From TrEMBL:
<dbReference type="InterPro" id="IPR043127">
    <property type="entry name" value="Sec-1-like_dom3a"/>
</dbReference>
<dbReference type="InterPro" id="IPR027482">
    <property type="entry name" value="Sec1-like_dom2"/>
</dbReference>
<dbReference type="Pfam" id="PF00995">
    <property type="entry name" value="Sec1"/>
</dbReference>
<dbReference type="GO" id="GO:0016192">
    <property type="term" value="P:vesicle-mediated transport"/>
</dbReference>
<dbReference type="InterPro" id="IPR043154">
    <property type="entry name" value="Sec-1-like_dom1"/>
</dbReference>
<protein>
    <submittedName>
        <fullName>Vesicle trafficking between the ER and Golgi</fullName>
    </submittedName>
</protein>
<comment type="similarity">
    <text>Belongs to the STXBP/unc-18/SEC1 family.</text>
</comment>
<dbReference type="InterPro" id="IPR001619">
    <property type="entry name" value="Sec1-like"/>
</dbReference>
<dbReference type="InterPro" id="IPR036045">
    <property type="entry name" value="Sec1-like_sf"/>
</dbReference>
Amino acid sequence: MTASKSLRDLQKDALFAMFSLNAADTSTDSNTTSSPSSSLATNGASTAAATALAITDPVWKVLIYDRFAQDVISPIVKVNDLREMGVTVHMPLYSDRLPIPDVPAIYFMQPTAENIRRMGEDLSKRLYESYYINFSSTIPRPLLEDLASTTIQAGASAEIAQVFDQYLDYVCLDHNLFSFQMEDSYRLLNDPSSSESHIEKLLDRIVGSLFSVLVTMSAVPVIRAQRGNAAEVVATKLEAKLRDHLLNSRANLFSTDAGAVNRSIARPVLIILDRNLDLNTMLSHTWTYATLVHDIFDMKLNRVTIPDPEAPAGAAAAASAKRKTFDIDVNDFFWKRHSANPFPQVAEDVDVEINKYKADVDQVTRSCGVSSLEDVDPNEYDSGAKGLTTAINKLPELTERKRLLDMHMSIATGLLKTIQERHLDQFFAMEESITRQTKATISEALRDTSKSPADKIRLFSIYYLSVDTISKDDLAEYERLLVEAGCSVAAIGYLKQVRAISRMTASANVAAAAAAPTTAATDLLYRFSTIGSKLTDHLQSTGVGNHFENLVSGVKNLLPVRKDCPVTRVVDTMMENRDEAGGGGGNNAANNPGDVVGGDYLYLDPRLPRGSSGKPAKGRTAFGEAVVFVVGGGNYLEAQNLWEYTQRTSLPRKKITYGTTELLTPNAFMAQLETLGGGGAGASMGRVPL
């Protein structure tokens, strides 16, 4: 178990090893996770030559990738990283490519029939000198045979240097955050019209990708999972796959974990949960920096596209014509420090960072005797002058800091404009105390013509899933108001049946709401106008802000109340082994608000003999590390809530890696709910055949 490194770092190591032609000693980590596809014979001399080639001088290479592999690479690897690894050209698999006959080519792609056919076309055209084929996951035997046949037909057997299974079929979006990029996963798993073969295929993909995550971590975990839904199926399939690999594989991909059989503190726990445990978190209006960016700007693969911050409010056409795109680096100093902070605190910290930047710029310009950084020419100054050398050496760092502050200023400006236009402060304030809302306050929000239909349906859905009772007459009145507001009520049709089957999400906010202070948001919009004008002025001046005197005052009274999401409460119980040997009684959150962990959870250990007890031993040591995986979609709010939990637990500090089938914005998740409700099939929690 490589406890000191994040999943992102481990995946980056694996990618860099692949770029070095899978030479083990070129990896930055001693743990290598790729495996040669043994069913395809390769020339031993070619493999030895490839290793020697990678170990000596850097080799100029071409990188070819399919769409999924591009998604894996792009959040982690920069162009400069590729160049340092000798990759001078990188192109999509399905692009038109000219031959480059004197260089080796690294292929990174999913093992699909379409990709094998495309690979065969490249081999026939003799595009490259040699081919290093890397599959994101294990290639099935029939496809491997197709590749061998295609290679022979092309007469290119001698050019195939390597064929590797990389076990990298997941996307890392933060240090301990991963997604499988499986679109519409919640809908597919809960729609009765989905065929069993389609569901089975999706579940097998989830199992294979989870196996890849564990291979990268070199960890065989204890597995805990909800019963009676997709989480149970995934858990049992994954345990069988792990057990089979440990018993039958010639090359053990988990060899570095071999000594951790009976030491729970050294092995992680994999907690697999179903999305239906908590729907509210997926629909909530949020107030932290990263969650707002994801919700408002639909951040994908860490790329953010925002309207021109200088466009006037409400000028939608003009704003859409001019847009700015930014790539968020998870190691960006500002993002790293503030992505999980409430927006008011982020605004305050922007002021601090700007003042720091200005002080450093002033020091450099005074040392060089100029008025601005643009006037500093390093070639004009005596390199022997210690003070000048120190000042000039700061130039690259200051330039990069200015770029990052400009970016975050633009993003903050866009957020504030959207908050103003959509009254997101009011929605957030209401949802923080959702069980205190009355028919009058909800109805007033639904009637407010200044609020968007998308935000109204999210608010009402959370209210509907949180309160104990709603009369038929009241529900009919709410639906009428939603329709008049331009909302689709298809999702409500689905949620009615979810609520009738099991009130899984009723406890999401009960405990916290009882202690939550009443939040006044009536005058917040007035103060936001001051903030917005300040930010715009800053962008129009030097590109970096001058003063934020009025910034924090406008948002101080909307700091989120600390509370644990249902998933976090389950994780806490599982990591601390407090579920009384497995618990019992099914998913009873609806019957016992405030207790979402009272259900019956599977306990599986792939390292124990088959048929061993399926319950954790009493008095078992708490787990120090967990991988939390949600089947059916997740979001940044849930991930941040888990990470915040690790920061406030007693030492030794816990480590949590969060993953899901897909990261969804609230609107994207609502679209899946609407599809389920609009199709006439109704809800079917437990649709997955067990």
